[in-house]
Amino acid sequence: MISPSDRALAVELIQEANQNGARLTEACKELNISVRTYERWVADGGVKEDQRPLAKRPEPKNKLTPEERQEIIEVVKKEEFENLPPSQIVPKLADQSIYIASESTFYRVLRMESMQNHRGRSKRPQWKLPESYLAIKPNEVWTWDITWLPGPIKGAYFRLYMVIDIFSRMPVGWEVWEHEDALYAEELIKKSIISEKIAGKPLVLHSDNGSPMKAATFQALLEKLGITKSYSRPRVSNDNPYSEAMFRTMKYRPEYPHQGFKSLEAAREWAGKFVRWYAYEHQHSGLNFVTPHQCHTGEYIKILEKRKEVYEQAKSKHPERWSRSTRDWSAHKSVALNPIKDQLE
């Protein structure tokens, strides 16, 4: 809910921008409000205050009566229930042929009365924001992970180490080995740094919390190379979405050998073919359908500009076929790893 002072300031800024030549739609968009909302605010000539706090709303039919609410409070204070959560209180009452309210209602009343507290000696669970980084060009933020490839027999697996750039989705380094080891990860990162020619430049390397990622020797290498280390929250795979998305694309390819690779060499050969396809042929939906290599080298800007020209020419020939503007072929300017905005919303 927007306060009256903020609402008045928003109206003032929108009107000022509109008087200086900005379209009303664009001015409202900058403040994340719709034109219809702005028109409602200024419908009477001034700035209308929010009427929602003043509205009279009917009480829900299923609302607890004061007596029922008080009964819940008295029940949870009884000696037999004082150390139990509602999830155990409600079943025990049912065993006594008593029903007062649902479990969720018990919890809600306890929270409103400040009677719902953390129990036990363990620490209270805390919600932690994921580490967030913004890349505005290639080789600023990399993510890496390890996935298992099926081996020649059931229960045997090879490990694919993969490093990708989040801005271009370009696989900047990969290796296949028979097991997970921090030494293999160290060699891969060093090779990737050399191949991209970014030694000494600022770089963020994000990963999950696997043992090779958290190994002391691997972390020492990152510090030596001046690389900022970043880790996902425990048991939250969404914090490393770019690596996970690439592995999913790989394992859903028609030619992926679900029956297993016959040898380590076969796994490396197939992985090499996939990486070349992904980098040079795969038109990535997250990049507006250009290849990671085109994005990594900067070619994508001209490619997208040419697509825009093609669409504009098509629209000029048959304007009756276009009810709105042409498809958006603009190039992305930045890519965020776990953007904070999404978390706050």
Automatic annotation (TrEMBL):
Q: Which residue stretches belong to region Disordered? A: 314-345
A single Gene Ontology MF term assigned here is: nucleic acid binding
What name does this protein carry? IS3 family transposase
Q: Which InterPro entries match?
A: Homeodomain-like_sf (IPR009057), Integrase_cat-core (IPR001584), RNaseH-like_sf (IPR012337), RNaseH_sf (IPR036397), Transpos_IS3 (IPR048020), Transposase_IS3/IS150/IS904 (IPR050900)
Q: Name one GO biological process term.
A: DNA integration
Q: Which organism is it from?
A: Anaerobacillus isosaccharinicus
Instruction: Write out the biased-composition intervals (Basic and acidic residues).
Output: 314-331
Q: For this UniProt entry, which segments traverse the membrane? A: none
| Domain Integrase catalytic, residue spans | 134-300
Q: Name one Pfam family in it.
A: HTH_32
